[in-house]
Amino acid sequence: MITASQVKELREKTGAGMMDCKKALEETQGDLEKAVDWLREKGIAKAAKKAGRIAAEGLTRFKVEGNRAVVYEINSETDFVAKNDQFLQLLELTGVALLEVAPKSLEEALSAPVNGRTVGDFITDATATIGEKITLRRFELLEKAETEVFGTYMHMGGKISVIVKMSAGTSDELAHDIAMQVASMSPTFISRKDIAADYIEHERNIQREIIKNDEALAGKPEKVREGILEGRLSKSLQESCLVDQLFFKNQDVKVSDVLKAEKAEVFSFVRYAVGEGIEKKEENFAAEVNSVFGN
After folding, report:
1. Is 291 exposed, middle or buried (CB count within 10 Å of its CB: 0-12, 13-18, 19+)?
2. N or C: which end of the chain has fewer CB within 10 A?
3. What DSSP string runs through 145-189?
4. pLDDT by residue (tens digit) across 13-65?
């Protein structure tokens, strides 16, 4: 039996309507990932990243010190708390502790000492004082060589934080621009050489099913349909790869062209957006459930 929570999760991942989500789950025996594919194949939903449209409150931050950097996220229950001075101080202290200790897990991070106490102590205090559950959700540390360059960008006061690691000699302006590119276009990979073969084959199968369900292409020769398939696959992969994306400052060139002009290379990047993959309560969901399930 398909539940309301399953429908809700699928809707948040794909943006499809609730009736369509219920139908997709029924057709795939409740398998969420297969239901996402089913919706895409029917042309109801676009390619959906795991982040989907699910949200939670809080802020992300980055902190850089010498050749070490960290990106991290602390969540709260409401957006209002993210403006609280104690919450902002907690963000700062957490970044200091993460860089100093370089923990390998969340447990180690919470035990990291800062100002004579631990990160966990400060989170407990903030939770008690502010009256909302506050959690350190995740973090990622980056190390660079002395000659390499970090590029950073924070959007909307911490709703999105990005750090990119780039080759020696990269200008600060370009490093910042590439971080902004990652923030705005949300690539999954640096280039196509980073994409696993099974990922590409999965995407190819999705596009094949989309074409199969497109009545306008029903009478086209197989060779033509295959050409359309490969074209759509190429476009999908282009959007997923940083260097293949159109540069946000100049839509006439790709990011790869900009990098080549400055003899620069991107080695890695981390992009955190607040609430990726966390379910957020929706006050009007009950009414929507009633419309679909008839309760």
Report:
1. exposed
2. N
3. -TT-EEEEEEETTTTEEEEEEE-TT--HHHHHHHHHHHHHH--SB
4. 777 788 888 999 999 999 999 998 998 888 776 544 433 433 379 999 999 99
